[in-house]
UniProtKB/TrEMBL annotation:
Protein name: RING-type E3 ubiquitin transferase
UniProt GO MF annotations: protein-folding chaperone binding; ubiquitin protein ligase activity
Keywords (A to Z) from UniProt: Repeat, TPR repeat, Transferase, Ubl conjugation pathway
GO cellular component terms attached to this protein's record: Z disc
Domain U-box, first and last residues per copy: 42-116
Length: 119
């Protein structure tokens, strides 16, 4: 009779170990997904404005080729002066051109990374 008890105990131990291995694998998979999501929560610098460092919503490009968020560069021109804050070249509001290519890139990024809408 004692051999039967030992056999049952061995089966219990093996079952417990199998469950533990499965649970460990599941936990490792979950942690890997969380790490991947955390890693992906970085907004690339090229999608952010040069003045506010926020994601570009209405990007405009200057004659010198620098892209800004429209409201930020317009505010700069009104409050600070009529010059490009990076190049210091004379700049007026009518020289700002919508940067449709950058807008497409930002929109695509936001579609794939909805968490960034609150960034």
């Amino acid at each position: 009779m004692p051999d039967v008890d030992i056999q049952l105990s061995w089966c219990d131990v093996k079952s417990y170990c199998d469950n533990t291995e499965n649970n460990t694998s599941e936990l490792n998979s979950i942690f890997a997904k969380v790490d991947d999501r955390r890693r992906k929560r970085d907004v690339p610098d090229y999608l952010c404005g040069k003045i506010s460092f926020e994601i570009l919503r209405d990007p405009v490009i200057t004659p010198s080729g620098i892209t800004y968020e429209r409201k930020d560069i317009e505010e700069h021109l009104q409050r600070v002066g009529h010059f490009d804050p990076v190049t210091r070249v004379k700049l007026t509001q009518d020289q700002l051109i919508p940067n449709f290519a950058m807008k497409e890139v930002v929109d695509a990024f936001l579609q794939e990374n909805e968490w960034a809408l609150d960034y």
